[in-house]
């Protein structure tokens, strides 16, 4: 029998973990998945943010959400996110490894500590959260894991050497997990272009003028909104994507296009 779109996007009874959930993309994904019926568990360093957003989701959707203060670079705290989720909801249906950030650093201007710190935040935290969720994920139908990758992890990006190297690692980790745990759990990454996240991009070293210059070159003529990414996340977790694993879905407004023809100006 033909399934309706509502059935394919029905997340009722699903329990979804989201890291970096007080940020622009993580909070939007949490709200959207909550509105589609999921019980979302939000983890973030920003305790006030995750607790407030979780309360709003519970009130607005009637689907209970849980906000937890979690440092994604601390394995013990990630373990706690799993334990509290199981205590409260008894299962894990999907994980969105969304936490990440990276400052502008020139290629030869980094050092061991900065490289390690970026790896811990952008790559290792996702490995640990996924590894600890696996015993629960394998029990669920259409279980899926997502990774918030970046366009800079897919092309040479010497201006963001720590972040781009860590994000490149994230993509291959996702592909490897897909191969290793194929039939039981699906693993996919998003390659995210420039999305409006308030001050966070400015703190990473962009100026408003730099952002405007990038936007002028984006094929679809605007910076992404958090909901553009949340929409793609919901698709990849839904029944509509049940035969999709090991891929990178690029959500970047068509990317930044520069003509290959030399300019006469
Ligand atoms: N916004 C973009 O243009 C863009 C582009 C490419 C990729 N991405 C990726 O998408 C994801 C979400 O980005 P965003 O724009 O929503 O970022 P954001 O800066 O708005 O949110 C990031 C969140 O992570 C939290 N966080 C930081 N360190 C943490 C830690 N140690 N433990 C737990 N939480 C921590 C912050 O408190 C914040 O709420 C990130 O992985 C980012 O690298 C974003």
Please specify the SSE layout and strand pairing.
Layout: H1 5-8, E1 15-19, H2 24-35, E2 39-44, H3 47-61, E3 66-69, H4 75-89, E4 94-97, H5 112-137, E5 143-150, H6 161-180, E6 185-192, H7 200-203, H8 208-217, H9 226-237, E7 248-251
Parallel strand pairs: 1-2, 1-4, 2-3, 4-5, 5-6, 6-7
The protein binds nicotinamide-adenine-dinucleotide.
Structural overview:
The protein is α/β, with parallel strands linked by helices and 265 residues long. It has a single domain, classed as 3-Layer(aba) Sandwich (Rossmann fold), CATH 3.40.50. Helix content is 45%, strand content 15%. The protein has 9 helices and 7 strands. It has helices at 5-8, 24-35, 47-61, 75-89, 112-137, 161-180, 200-203, 208-217, 226-237, and strands at 15-19, 39-44, 66-69, 94-97, 143-150, 185-192, 248-251. The chain has a 7-stranded parallel β-sheet, sandwiched between helices. Helix 4 (75-89) runs parallel beside helix 5. The termini are far apart. The model has no long low-confidence stretch (mean pLDDT 96). Residues 20, 22-26, 44-46, 70-73, 98-101, 121, 148, 150, 192, 194-195, 197, 200-201 line the site of nicotinamide-adenine-dinucleotide. Nicotinamide-adenine-dinucleotide binds at residues 20, 22-26, 44-46, 70-73, 98-101, 121, 148, 150, 192, 194-195, 197, 200-201.
């Amino acid at each position: 029998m033909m399934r309706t779109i509502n059935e394919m996007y029905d997340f009722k009874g699903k329990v979804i973990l989201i890291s970096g959930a007080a940020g622009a993309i993580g909070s939007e994904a949490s709200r959207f998945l909550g509105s589609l019926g999921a019980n979302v568990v939000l983890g973030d360093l920003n305790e006030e943010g995750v607790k407030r957003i979780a309360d709003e989701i519970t009130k607005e959707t009637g689907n209970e959400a849980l906000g937890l203060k979690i440092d994604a670079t601390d394995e013990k705290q990630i373990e706690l996110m799993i334990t509290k989720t199981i205590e409260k909801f008894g299962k894990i249906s999907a994980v969105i490894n969304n936490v990440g950030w990276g400052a502008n650093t020139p290629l030869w201007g980094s050092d061991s500590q900065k490289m390690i710190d970026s790896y811990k935040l952008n790559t290792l935290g996702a490995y640990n959260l996924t590894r600890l969720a696996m015993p629960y994920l394998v029990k669920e139908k259409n279980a899926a894991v997502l990774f918030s990758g970046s366009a800079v992890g897919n092309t040479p990006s010497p201006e963001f050497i720590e972040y781009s190297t860590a994000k490149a690692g994230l993509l291959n980790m996702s592909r490897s997990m897909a191969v290793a745990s194929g039939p039981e759990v699906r693993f996919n990454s998003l390659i995210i272009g420039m999305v409006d996240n308030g001050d966070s991009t400015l703190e990473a070293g962009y100026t408003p003028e730099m952002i405007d210059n990038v936007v002028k070159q984006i094929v679809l003529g605007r910076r992404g909104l958090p909901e553009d990414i949340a929409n793609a996340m919901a698709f990849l977790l839904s029944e509509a994507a049940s035969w999709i694993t090991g891929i990178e879905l690029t959500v970047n407004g068509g990317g930044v296009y520069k003509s290959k023809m030399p300019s006469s100006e």
